[in-house]
From TrEMBL:
One of its GO terms (biological process) is proteolysis. Residues 1-21 form the signal peptide. This is CYSTEINE PROTEASE FAMILY C1-RELATED. GO terms for molecular function: peptidase activity. It comes from Salix koriyanagi. Residues 53-109 form the Cathepsin propeptide inhibitor domain. The keyword Cell inner membrane does not apply. The keyword Cell inner membrane does not apply. Pfam families: Inhibitor_I29. Keywords: Hydrolase, Protease, Signal. Gene3D superfamilies: 1.10.287.2250.
């Protein structure tokens, strides 16, 4: 089950990257900042995540109804940033990063009606 879940997440991110490549313009500095040369010390990572989340909210005109919702979406966003960075390391030729869906969990993404084609792994 873990392999299927990992495959689904990878395919979801690839799908999102492909569908929104024209809006993100393959050289989006936000994507580059997310995956390139991160200082992984605790305080610098938190500052970077806060910075990326602020840019994300501004770029995609996101706002949340309460501080609790904001904090939850920030935690989801951080998890998605980390996932994108891991996937970028797995395939350096792909572009993984921030999209308008970066504050959604995989379950919320599926519930919104987005689907990823199933690919059989040989």
């Amino acid at each position: 089950m873990s392999l299927n879940c990992s495959l689904y997440v990878i395919l979801s991110l690839l799908f999102i990257s492909a569908v929104y490549a024209d809006t993100l313009n393959g050289d989006d500095p936000l994507i580059r900042q997310v995956v390139d040369g991160q200082d992984t010390s605790s305080s610098n990572l938190l500052n970077a995540e806060q910075h990326h989340f602020s840019q994300f909210k501004s770029k995609f005109k996101k706002s949340y109804g309460s501080q609790d919702e904001h904090d939850y979406r920030f935690s989801v966003f951080k998890a998605n940033l980390r996932r994108a960075a891991r996937h970028q390391k797995l395939d350096p030729t792909a572009s993984h990063g921030v999209t308008q869906f970066s504050d959604l969990t995989p379950a919320e993404f599926r519930k919104a009606g987005f689907r990823v084609a199933q690919v059989e792994v040989a």
